[in-house]
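[Discussion] Sanity-checking designs against the backbone

I'm trying to build intuition for which residues belong where. Below is a structure token string of 280 positions. I'd appreciate it if someone posts a full sequence so I can compare it with mine line by line.
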């Protein structure tokens, strides 16, 4: 009898422990504490991970190339350069070689790149980079590290080569030439989204687009590579702009399911960007 009683007590204790473990795991999953926020570009068999702020800056650099009508290779060169110079972050300091270097591309006011405030503006800095790049004869066919060096005049001219594969993957996704190539894993949005803020950011980076903000969505009647460029730009900026879903060309990216791009009934001739609702 004592043995049976001990067995029952042991089983009850194990059940209580199992129940507690299940409850803790459920709470963690619902609170998304275990979610590591990141963005990944996959082209072919290669994948490249960036933090969400780095991916947003790569999206800005690429969108400006699209706005200017530059080839994807220009975006590859620029993204690779910014990764090497600043890790794709808008930093406000230089180094021993260039103590006054600033911004995404570590441009130096003392070398004629603009004022400190200008080179710290990512849009200005990116346009300044492209202004120099397009003046280089044959940059479209040059080795990427050579084209970057022709613009930057770095003390380490071959360093850009190590960033070329990553730059190519993000440029291909963010120019829309590689569909379903960019995915960001994010926690739930903690603030309500503003579709007008999405349109404003999009216009700053891409230029004027046929974007209509209505309710919690932004809709664009565009297709092809342009549609995928905008759609994947929205994914790259989903954290800051509180984007929860993007629909384009028969595919949907949903922030909550963490499954990347999935087949859907999305219209082929439009892009719909949905932002989070106000908290109740």
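Best answer:
Here's mine. Compare freely.
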């Amino acid at each position: 009898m004592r043995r049976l009683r001990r067995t029952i007590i042991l089983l009850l204790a194990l059940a209580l422990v199992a129940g507690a473990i299940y409850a803790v795991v459920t709470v963690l999953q619902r609170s998304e504490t275990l979610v590591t926020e990141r963005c990944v570009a996959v082209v072919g068999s290669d994948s490249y991970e960036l933090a969400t702020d780095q991916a947003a800056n790569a999206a800005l650099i690429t969108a400006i190339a699209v706005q200017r009508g530059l080839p994807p290779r220009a975006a590859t060169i620029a993204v690779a350069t910014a990764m090497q110079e600043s890790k794709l972050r808008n930093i406000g300091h230089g180094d021993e070689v260039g103590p006054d270097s600033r911004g995404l591309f570590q441009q130096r006011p003392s070398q004629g790149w603009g004022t400190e405030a200008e080179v710290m503006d990512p849009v200005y800095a990116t346009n300044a980079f492209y202004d120099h790049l397009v003046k280089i004869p044959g940059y479209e066919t040059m080795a990427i590290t050579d084209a970057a060096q022709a613009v930057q005049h770095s003390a380490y001219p071959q360093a850009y080569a190590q960033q070329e594969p990553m730059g190519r993957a993000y440029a291909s996704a963010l120019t829309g030439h590689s569909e379903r190539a960019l995915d960001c894993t994010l926690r739930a949005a903690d603030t309500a989204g503003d579709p007008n803020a999405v349109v404003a950011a999009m216009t700053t980076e891409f230029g004027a687009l046929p974007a209509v903000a209505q309710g919690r969505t932004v809709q664009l009647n565009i297709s092809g590579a342009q549609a995928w460029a905008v759609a994947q730009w929205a994914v790259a900026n989903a954290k800051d702009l509180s984007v929860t879903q993007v629909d384009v060309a028969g595919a949907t990216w949903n922030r909550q399911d963490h499954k990347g791009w999935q087949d859907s009934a999305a219209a082929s001739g439009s892009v719909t960007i949905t932002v989070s609702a106000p908290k109740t």
